[in-house]
Give the backbone structure.
Amino acid sequence: MPTDVERWKSEVYGQEIREHLFEFAEEGYDTIPEDERDAWFERFKWWGLYHQRNGQEGYFMMRIGTPNGVMKPGQLRVVGEIASEYATGPGVNPIFGDGYADFTTRQSIQLHWIELSDIPDIFEKLEENGLSTQQACGDSWRNIVGNPVAGKDAREVIDAWPVIHDLNETFKGNDDHSNLPRKWKVSVTGTPDGSGQGDINDLAFEPAYKTIDGEETVGFNVRVGGGLARNEPRFARDIDVWVPPADVSTVAGGLSALFRDNGDREDRYNARIKFLVDEWGADKVRETLQSEYVDFELHTAGRDVREEYTYNTGDGDRNDLIGVHEQHDGSYFIGLNVLVGRMGASDVLELADLASEYGSGEVRLSQRQNIIVTDIPKDAVDEFTSEQLLENYSPDPSPFMRGSVACTGTEFCSLSIVETKNRQVRYARWLKDNVTLPGDVDEFHIHLSGCTASCAQPQIADISLRGMKTRKNGEPVEALDVGLGGGLGAEPQFARWVTQRVPVDEIPGAISNLIETFAAERNDDESFRAFIDRHDNDELDSFVAPEETDYEDPMMHNTKRTWYPYAENDGLDAGPSAPADD
Amino acid sequence: MTVRLRVLDDGAWISVNDRREVSVSELWRVEATDFCSCDLVDFVVENFQTVGVNGQTIEVIVYGQCIACGATGETEWLPVGRVIDGEFAVFDESTVRRTRESRKPETNSG
């Protein structure tokens, strides 16, 4: 039997949701019939709008999809202006203030406290400036990811940006692909560094060479069925297909249609294509694609460059895109660390101005929640990196600041079990002040995800933290499971969950003890990931050794039982009523 | 009387009569010897799998973990509240919940 969500989608979905959304915006939040709210909130996701959690009735999270994280000149300023004018609400964050933008692990932007009545004006402003929320959430083609500096990176072997742009133009607003069984996440990468993180996407195009008509040609190998969510992580499976750039759209459309027609619409927990690949195997996916969805002979896989991957591998150079890097045109892109991906609106505006002053005005968003300013001439690099703003968004940060990734958490998210972003900021600051990594370790990734949805990609970090509960002195407190040794690369692996249910105030001590053991017992210049690899779970559990320190955590209580975790009077019954329509 | 029941937002909510009533991330006390060996399971609610009605009682199957012993998995049907005169009343967090099977009255087959 189809699910409620499938029934709602069969009634109204895709582009047509917009006219209803605008009607409700015009007539007021209260005009959404109570018995239809579940349905409309589900549909609004297709237009990038997520109703915030319990206690925040009538406020929405808005996600803006920026394909490959590319923000053309002027677009960052538009986001800053919208965040400043509209992304403010009754809750004020004690670290980030009122009005901020979140850069996500899929190269998108999230704004909070958005009121329904403001959505038409926001959409108008976004669309006037080439930005959109379309399909940023919901069961369709999501924001396409890749190496954010595609088209500029001196290391790339093929420019993936025209391919990504074409896919975005073809599959956004495409009625044949607008209602899939579940979300559809695509990655396209043209750099031999793995920075597109294709392995954790539903569909991945990775650079590969194939001899065609006697000539070695650069194109893409295809992998299908990766994803991290719901305690069912999978790496994308190799389906033995190579495509030239000109055929990417056809093959991607074929696989999207295969998913549309064969994905499970009766059980949303079994709907992602990773489960279809589990069931069918890669061979059948390839055979079905060939026989039913493309009308030309598919090439077999080409020679890949996975051995060269460094991004998020825990070893080698360029595990992220922070710092100063040369572009192929001789100018530079400079990756700035945005701690947990959150930037106050005024800082967004200031950075937008600096990007215009020193570079082309273009910026790019990475999958590590950071921001990259591009097109900076060589002789302007030093002056740019000396700007005061960059003291907080450093191109050369502490490894603990640089490696921190966090999801939205209970501040706004219904699924999360614990508070995340502010906690990860406190963790990073404490670790920076109290823990010393071996001198040759300048990157150390700690990802904090509030639940098994894995929006912070916890399974592919050096240290993975995932929301949980425990009791401390008999009282329920927020806690984290600790996983170790995850990472991507030629041989990607998920973290092993070695220590469960550590009270959140004992995590800094646990990490400190772990790093102390690593520093003392590593072989020569052994990487943390390699060190973890050669120990079993019991040994690693003993290395973690949680303990209290002078770190204090103000969010030990059940933050989900609050209307806003940081409010002075935070009880659910003290929460705001839905915003008035004005 | 018809009761509309739904699992919403990837298992984050149970909606009863179009209202989001029961949320994940709570700690429940559960009597369920088939889940783990603890006398009383100290259960973190991570994901609602499905929701149903049994008489006046709203029940769920839920994925989660016993924080006393670390056992993880899906429960049998557990009660979350009752609908009385069309109004849903959620069980207090301190309620000790028992699976549907264990709530059946014992019968004497002799």
